[in-house]
Amino acid sequence: DAGVIQSPRHEVTEMGQEVTLRCKPISGHDYLFWYRQTMMRGLELLIYFNNNVPIDDSGMPEDRFSAKMPNASFSTLKIQPSEPRDSAVYFCASSLREIDGYTFGSGTRLTVV
Amino acid sequence: DAKTTQPPSMDCAEGRAANLPCNHSTISGNEYVYWYRQIHSQGPQYIIHGLKNNETNEMASLIITEDRKSSTLILPHATLRDTAVYYCIVRVGWESGGSNYKLTFGKGTLLTVNP
Q1: Is A84 strand, coil or helix?
Q2: How many CB atoms sit inside 10 A of residue A63's CB?
Q3: Is B102 in Cβ contact with A93 (below 8 Å)?
Q4: Burial class (CB in 10 A: 0-12, 13-18, 19+), B103
Q5: Pairing mode of beta strands B18-23, A103-104
Q6: pLDDT tens by residue, A31-83
């Protein structure tokens, strides 16, 4: 298995632009998680899905952030409009069951200038 | 979820065992102990988890005290590639019901393995 695949690896965008981050979980995994990591705040859970349904989005910072999971093999995290404070590394992770360890992707490093 | 306390940093000599402590004195009966690590510039990596009994896998061993108020992650023969931030996390298990299975990361312990 190729693991959790995230794209792009790096994204540089101007303030105000729309940014879309993509994630392909491990096949057969029922849970998908989006995390954000910054030096100041560490790793923060933004949202997670179970069987493509959002279960908890309480970590989504504000309405500029939205996440979707249209099918079991694809999820997106969208920021519109982007701001410099959104600069961070965004990780996607998946797990087979809730009790299992998560498999994380390599992350997307987002820089908003 | 119960809070955990870990030392901010530790050093270990290459080839020796690395013993990483974690205090979780307020852990509940239905909370599991999970360990992850994050090597610089990579995504976190799951290591091991347990409820009451000691656990071992190909990466590490997890020793949980009888009262479950603390645990130790043991890397039996540390290598330079084990240099990473190690996170100890407690989280409710599926038996508790509901839908809150969030994994909340703290600051972790930076383990530096020295040649």
Answers
A1: helix
A2: 7
A3: no
A4: buried
A5: unpaired
A6: 999 999 999 999 999 999 999 999 889 999 889 999 999 999 999 999 999 99
Q: Is A31 within 8 Å of chain B by CB?
A: yes
Element (H, E) at A58: none
Amino acid in position A81: P
Largest distance between two CA atoms of chain A: 39
Q: Side by side, which strands form the sheet with A65-71?
A: A5-7, A19-24, A74-79, A65-71
Please indicate whether, in this complex, the C-beta atoms of B34 and A97 are within 8 angstroms of each other. Answer: no
Residue closest to B48 by CA, chosen among B72, B65, B68: B72
Q: Identify the bridge partners of residue A6 per DSSP, sorted by sequence position.
A: A23
For A15, B26, B31, B56, B87, the CA distances from B49, given in Å and listed in that order, are: 41, 17, 11, 9, 12
Q: Which residues from chain A sit within 8 angstroms of residue B94, using beta carbons?
A: 97-99
Nearest to B88 by CA among B42, B29, B21, B39: B21
Instruction: Give me the helices (H) in A1-113, please.
Output: none
Q: Is A85 helix (H, G, I), strand (E, B) or coil?
A: helix
Q: Give the other-Cβ count within 10 Å of A65's Cβ.
A: 20
Confidence of residue A99 (pLDDT cuts 50, 70, 90): confident
